[in-house]
Amino acid sequence: MEKPTPPGTFLHVAGARPNFPKLAPVYDALRRRGAPQFVVHTGQHFDDALSGVFFRQLGMPAPERNLGVSGGSDSEVIARIMLEFEAVARSIDPVCVIVYGDVNSTIAAATVAVKLGIPVAHVEAGLRSRDRSMPEEINRIVTDHLASVHFATSSDAVENLAAEGITGDGVELVGNPMIDTLLLSMERFDAGALRRDLQLPHEYATVTVHRPGNVDTDEDAREIVEAVHGVADLVDVVLPVHPRGSARLRSQGLEKHDRVHVVPPLGYLEFMGLVRESRLVVTDSGGVQEETTVFGVPCLTLRPNTERPVTITHGSNQLVGRENVVRAATRVLAEERGVSVRPPLWDGAAGERIADSMNRRFPHL
Ligand code: UDP
């Protein structure tokens, strides 16, 4: 049993690294409005480097409850989170469950909540890669069709929802809460110690890669390693390695290049410092495409598609195939540095808009 929570409690569910910078500004804005809140961490990411460090660096209180679910296939994780979360949701009896992004915790919590008759608000609704081989795409689609409140980061997301019949008052374009976190923490970004430790030259590239489509088979990992080595022939590469894919990339010889610096996953402030000062970023991350847009750092996205087209139409992002990375990197390195771009409403106030909307929709006592 949970300790009693006041009527009108908002129940946030987060579980994996990309959730935390999205949760922080929403939580904070609701806290300032005096709303009762309860945070459930599903345990999907349990490493301090992927989880605890975010709560500390972003000044968030520790989650009230950790479900301790991690490891296993997608379905296994989703099923176990559902079982654990149902008991918590019943005892908290929140006025709304707020879920973030596109991870397994998101779809699991949304499913449980609607089955209990609890409304679901989805933060970062409507993004679509149109690639159903991505587990995240399935999570996005299902969550959006279960949620009754949809907070979109960009107008393309609103259009995607409309194309699936999700329209009306429940859909709000609010901007990007992850960018709230970036703008708020900007002065604390610092990769100085890391750059000194690695003795990095002035110009370097940051690389992150962890999507199943890039690291789940030896063949994919080998091609990715080749691409990374090709970039390292041009410029030093720092690669904060995600636990997913770490072993496979290493077994394919990732570290067998003098200018590839493989480091553990970095804290948010260190990572953002590193990205901000990069000459170039190569990634398959969703969030990093958005962050490089705001920094104006050229971003090569190692994927055939993106659910974040605004980073291409407005920002510094371009999609590249593995075989084209070196050519694209050569071109980018020869060009002027990019300029910082803020797509509409990526202004640091998305959390405020979400909190205002939630208070309007679910007035608490
Ligand atoms: N990030 C970090 N340290 C790292 C890599 C990423 O702090 O070593 C942050 C960064 O803000 C990024 C977020 O974690 O946007 C989520 O990244 P990830 O690539 O894990 O998830 P995705 O956005 O692809 O779902």
List the helices and strands and how they pair.
Blueprint: E1 10-14, H1 20-32, E2 37-41, H2 52-57, E3 65-66, H3 74-92, E4 96-100, H4 104-115, E5 120-123, H5 135-146, E6 149-152, H6 155-163, E7 171-173, H7 177-185, H8 192-198, E8 204-208, H9 212-215, H10 218-232, E9 236-240, H11 243-251, E10 260-263, H12 268-276, E11 280-283, H13 286-295, E12 299-301, H14 310-313, E13 317-319, H15 325-334, H16 350-361
Parallel strand pairs: 1-2, 1-4, 2-3, 4-5, 5-6, 6-7, 8-9, 8-11, 9-10, 11-12, 12-13
Helix pairs in contact: 1-7, 1-16, 3-4, 4-5, 10-15
The protein binds uridine-5'-diphosphate (UDP).
The site of uridine-5'-diphosphate has 14 residues, from helix 12 and helix 13.
Could you characterize what this model shows?
This protein folds into two domains: 10-176 and 346-361, Rossmann fold (3-Layer(aba) Sandwich), CATH 3.40.50.2000; 188-334, Glycogen Phosphorylase B (Rossmann fold), CATH 3.40.50.2000. The model has no long low-confidence stretch (mean pLDDT 96). The protein starts with 9 loop residues before the first strand and ends with a helix. The protein has 365 residues and is of the alpha/beta class. The protein has 16 helices and 13 strands. Helix 1 packs across helix 7 and helix 4 packs parallel to helix 5. 44% of the residues lie in helices and 14% in strands. A seven-stranded parallel β-sheet has the order 3-2-1-4-5-6-7, sandwiched between helices. The chain has a six-stranded parallel β-sheet with strand order 10-9-8-11-12-13, sandwiched between helices. The longest helix has 19 residues, at 74-92. It binds uridine-5'-diphosphate.
